Amino acid sequence: MKQLESLNQLIDMAKSIAGSDYKLAKLTGHTPQQISDWRHGRKPCPPEDQALIAGVAGLDAEQVALRALVEKHEGTPKGDRLMRVLGKALLATGAVIGSAGASAAAISSTTLVAGHLGEWIVAILYTMSVM
């Protein structure tokens, strides 16, 4: 699975499959204005909508949704609880790595992005310590 760096990259990948932002909006049940708002950061794109966009892009929607969910609550008590509950599943699927207060990073099951090795190790140790 290709490494995603941003929501814009996700939208661009889906747009390239759908043909346009308008067609992407119709395929995911949104308006073109919502796609534009997410692309330009005027409104946050909920995890469930990121999953729908990932489906159009041909990516693993579950991995994208989990990564987005953890990022949404990053640095909060709820985010810490989510990491405790989802930590093993996230590491098993390769969807997300991170620790409390650290940036979540998407990885594939075969690729570890350089620069995130420390976060990956911390995530494993963190998950093992709370499980």
Overall description:
With 131 residues, the chain is mainly α. Helix content is 63%, strand content 3%. The chain contains 7 helices and 2 strands; from the N terminus they run H-H-H-H-H-H-E-E-H. It has helices at residues 7-18, 21-28, 32-39, 47-57, 61-72, 77-93, 117-130; strands spanning 96-97, 105-106. A two-stranded antiparallel sheet has the order 1-2. Helix 6 (77-93) packs across helix 7. 32% of the residues are buried. The model is unreliable at 95-118 and 127-131 (pLDDT under 50).
Topology:
Elements: H1 7-18, H2 21-28, H3 32-39, H4 47-57, H5 61-72, H6 77-93, E1 96-97, E2 105-106, H7 117-130
Antiparallel strand pairs: 1-2
Helix pairs in contact: 1-2, 1-4, 2-3, 4-5, 5-6, 6-7
| H/I helix tally | 7
- Rg, rounded, reads 15 Å
State which percent range the strand residues make up.
under 5%
Low-confidence stretches: 95-118, 127-131
Helix-and-strand structural type: mainly alpha
Based on CA inertia axes, which overall geometry fits?
Answer: globular
**The biggest beta sheet, please?**
2 strands, antiparallel
Key structural traits:
mainly alpha; 7 helices; 3% strand
Q: TL;DR?
A:
This protein is mainly α. It contains seven helices and two strands; from the N terminus they run H-H-H-H-H-H-E-E-H. It has helices at 7-18, 21-28, 32-39, 47-57, 61-72, 77-93, 117-130, and strands spanning 96-97, 105-106.
